[in-house]
């Protein structure tokens, strides 16, 4: 979506989505890759003119991408009820475990159009991520699940996440990812703390909105 930079633009979008909902063509509307400030602006416009505000934000969220969903969006979740529809829980396959020993020829990262993904995987940061994933494997084993299932369940355990959007290249992958639902009850505070200690990237929240 094009960057929104003026009050009139927010007003037009909110008015258009309100019309769509009032005509019965949709039940709700949300944003994608909007900043917290932009979402709050749209919400304010909706409340000012008695229109329908967005109810969710579509944002990237996985073990290695946490800042927006864990720091920026909680304020919106607790103040105005905007939840997160997160995507790429396996970080374009990086968290699947298949890149632990390089880039397999049959993988997505081996395709020419995904050269950027290959470069990301073989970079210094990419190698560090693969080491962390190997360290997470024992936790997955203890919980009786695969690494992808652990990663998806980790996303689902966040109270501000309304849903996790899955992507799979075959039915087997989809079935495996859906198995994360069975893992979710096992995501105790102790397990989450273990994962945080391994990742070492937990963002610092400005405020605990539960207090």
From TrEMBL:
GO terms for molecular function: molecular function inhibitor activity; NADPH binding; oxidoreductase activity; potassium channel regulator activity; protein domain specific binding; transmembrane transporter binding. InterPro entries: K_chnl_volt-dep_bsu_KCNAB-rel, K_chnl_volt-dep_bsu_KCNAB1, NAD(P)_OxRdtase_dom_sf, NADP_OxRdtase_dom. GO terms for cellular component: cytoplasmic side of plasma membrane; cytosol; juxtaparanode region of axon; voltage-gated potassium channel complex. GO terms for biological process: learning or memory; potassium ion transport; regulation of potassium ion transmembrane transport; transmembrane transport. It is found in: Cytoplasm. SUPFAM superfamilies: NAD(P)-linked oxidoreductase. Residues 10-197 form the NADP-dependent oxidoreductase domain. Keywords: Cytoplasm, Ion transport, NADP, Oxidoreductase, Potassium, Potassium transport, Transport. Pfam families: Aldo_ket_red (PF00248). Belongs to the shaker potassium channel beta subunit family. This is Potassium voltage-gated channel subfamily A regulatory beta subunit 1. The lineage of its organism: Eukaryota, Metazoa, Chordata, Craniata, Vertebrata.
């Amino acid at each position: 979506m094009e960057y929104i930079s003026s009050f009139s633009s927010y007003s037009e979008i909110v008015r258009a989505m309100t019309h769509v909902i009032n005509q019965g063509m949709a039940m709700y509307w949300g944003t994608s890759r909007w900043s917290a400030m932009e979402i709050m602006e749209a919400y304010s416009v909706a409340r000012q003119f008695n229109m329908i505000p967005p109810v969710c934000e579509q944002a990237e969220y996985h073990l290695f991408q946490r800042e927006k969903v864990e720091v920026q969006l909680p304020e919106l979740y607790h103040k105005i009820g905007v939840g997160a529809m997160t995507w790429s829980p396996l970080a374009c396959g990086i968290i699947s475990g298949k890149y632990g020993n390089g880039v397999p020829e049959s993988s997505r990262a081996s395709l020419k159009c995904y050269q950027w993904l290959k470069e990301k995987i073989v970079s210094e940061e990419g190698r560090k991520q693969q080491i962390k994933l190997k360290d997470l494997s024992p936790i997955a084993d203890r919980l009786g699940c695969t690494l992808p299932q652990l990663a998806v369940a980790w996303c689902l355990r966040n109270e501000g996440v309304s849903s996790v959007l899955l992507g799979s290249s075959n039915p087997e992958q989809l079935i495996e990812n859906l198995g994360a639902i069975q893992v979710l009850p096992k995501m105790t505070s102790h397990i989450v703390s273990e994962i945080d200690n391994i990742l070492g990237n937990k963002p610092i929240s400005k405020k605990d909105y539960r207090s």
